[in-house]
């Protein structure tokens, strides 16, 4: 009886927004779904309005898929990316979206911090072609300072991705004066170099485009005096990853 009820009940979740022609979250042109809710509190978050899991809007998977279907012709060399917020806060919802995307023959990418319940994430990974794993720092104390949560779950998640040989891109946000200590970057590069499933590393320069959202939410933005890194600073960090034999840009 339970099975019948589950089959008939639409799977719903909460999203913040969608972007129909994204080009920065995975290969090619992508339909990007921003889910609502995130357990991290990153100092540089440019989507602080994605954090509250009760905010955003409730949608069914079918409603989302009817939007995806409209853009399918444009997504042939790209696909669908689910980001947030933290998509893995809603594993059942996200797994069902990605499963339906695979039914349409679309490539699927999952952008996550890896701060998740591994068991719950496994059903999502079954329908994920590429993981974009954001590792926000490598020194445990610094990771906690940047995100307000511990590092270890993300490392466990990263090692699991390697064990199942899931294609993965690592993303690291370079914030001058915060995430740029050499031992932090080098430690991360050395760790990532042990993961044979990692295809590339993306060094993302810190920017302040989301600062106005912090103001709108009445939250103190602690990085207001921090400037984005120079091209030279970015190049230096990219080189640290390359020195470990990684493809980085
Ligand atoms: S993981 Fe992303 S959405 Fe969550 S707080 Fe950090 S930057 Fe913001």
Radius of gyration: 18 Å
Helix content: 25-40%
Give the neighbour order of strands across the main sheet.
3-1-2-4-5-6-7-8
Query: Briefly, what CATH class?
Result: Alpha Beta
- Structural class per helix/strand content? alpha/beta
Instruction: List bound small molecules.
Output: iron/sulfur cluster
Q: Biggest β-sheet, characterized?
A: 8 strands, mixed
Give the topology string: H per helix, E per strand: HEEEHEHEHEHHEHEHH
Tell me the count of domains. 1
Low-confidence stretches: 1-5
Helical run tally: 9
CATH topology: TIM Barrel
The span between the termini is 52 Å
CATH architecture: Alpha-Beta Barrel
- Mean of pLDDT: 95
Determine the CATH superfamily: Aldolase class I
Q: Name the beta content range.
A: 15-25%
Keyword list:
about 250 residues; alpha/beta; eight-stranded mixed sheet; 8 strands; about 35% helix; globular; disordered N terminus; binds iron/sulfur cluster; EC 1.97.1.4; Aldolase_TIM; iron-sulfur
Outline:
With 249 residues, this protein is α/β, with parallel strands linked by helices.
Describe the structure.
There is one protein chain. The chain is α/β, with parallel strands linked by helices and 249 residues long. It has one domain: Aldolase class I (TIM Barrel, Alpha-Beta Barrel), CATH 3.20.20.70. It has nine helices and eight strands. The protein has an eight-stranded mixed beta sheet. Helix 7 (182-193) links the parallel strand 7 and strand 8 (198-205). Helix 3 runs parallel beside helix 4 and helix 7 (182-193) crosses helix 9. The chain is globular, with a radius of gyration of 18 Å. It starts with a helix and ends in a 6-residue tail after the last helix. The structure holds iron/sulfur cluster. Iron/sulfur cluster binds at residues 38, 40-42, 45, 47, 50-51, 84-86, 113.
